[in-house]
Structures
1.
Amino acid sequence: MKPLACIVTGLLGASALLLEGSWRPAWADDALAPPPNASSSPTNKAASTTTTRWYGWQTLAADLPASVLIMTAGSVDNVTLRQATGLSGFALYAIVPPVIHAIHNRGAIAGIDVALRLGLPLVAAGIGWQIGIASRDSRPDDVVYESVKPLVYALWGLLVGAGTAIATDSLLLAREEVVVHAPLAPAVAWAPVLSPREGGATAGVAGRF
């Protein structure tokens, strides 16, 4: 039996030398190795969703001072100052909000906004003018009022049209789609490790985080 014991001892020693004190299965290496294409791995790909963001407060920030300037222009006695005040209010109303849309990379909406802000007040003013003409009294008590009645109705239509354009722009047009990226989930891999040593073996777990 002594030769058999020597053979067994020799085989165990040779195995220990080949293993160099450390052994783990091939599938453990595969588990710890990075994926062939980390960018296409589901664990490394950031999940993204699309949401709607409202920026109508930016257009309202221009429309509020514009409305104040236009409304106060009529009460200014100096003609030059009255014209400057009215033109400044009109510029804030007609130019600044479309520029805000363009800054948000929404050129088509900017064009629609210009058409809405210029066209809707004119259409409403035309409707008011026609209503003023149709509602004239043939035998008026106040001849002066009846003579300017179409103009008064046209001005009211102008104000209603401008207010409708401002509200439509802020509530409906000033909304953009934005992509929200979720944080990357950490790629975690682990595998058991067995390390034979003299007089025994060491077992553990190896991981990659």
2.
Amino acid sequence: MPIVRLQITTPSDLTGGTLLGRNTKLIEKQFCMTQPNILFIMADQLRADHVGFGGNQIVQTPTLDGLAERGMVFDRAFVANPICMPNRSTIMTGRMPSIHGTRYNGIALDWRANTYVKALRKSGYRTSHIGKSHLQFMGVGRHPAAKEVDFSLPDDAVEAGLPDGWDEYERFTTYFKNEHVDLPEDFYGFERADFVVGHGDVCGGHYYHWLRDQGLQDPREYQGPDNALNSSPHWQHQVYQTRLPEALYPTTYVADKTINELATAAQDERPFFIHCSFPDPHHPFCPPGDYWHMYDPADMPLPKNFSQDHASSMPHI
């Protein structure tokens, strides 16, 4: 379940060298601007109680805490769907999954769907996406969806008539090829998109090509639990220290690319909308470098229901 944050900036705030540092200010009294610049920051599976301003006494999130202090926190916001693709599609369209059609992971958002990004672009905005999109099939969940979901509904999101490959731009394996992957001029309203496809350190997309440009001939030799420097004795495939250095980790890539896009967009006469989407902290939990040693697992309080047998849980499929 992604948690989102809307950040509004002015061009003068873009020269500080940090994405969310002290030079990026929340505009509180300038909503009268006809077309303010917008930076939309999203994280994946970041729990509301795993940030300092959410009451967590262990996890250190000073930058997010500063944003919360200067801005507004919506502590009674609810998602339209607890699953990734349906809720991301709801954010994009403002419609419930029963309307936009992405009712399950593996069902791409209809290419023709009207999105708020399309509306911004029609209004003259420069629109950019950086990081995880997951509006289309990434490589996990498509076939189960085809078996479990009724695609015969009238006016469904996957009805025939769209060209072959329309929902393949985020497929993980697409980017294993050496050549550059050309994107359409309009990706759900984005005129440019830079993808990080996947989770943890096992990510592909344009990020995968960038890793090769940094000298990693085969990035897969540095990714995943089999190449880890350290791992949990009980959760070795989900909790490990990635072999990738911090400078090459997906979070660093998304932040740096966003900073570069902010600087470029500031030179454009048009107002900008930038969607900055981090794949973390979605599992696997594989921090790079010193981040692996930042917390002691023994200091982490477990939920009261951690050891329950679910005998009293609600029935589910």
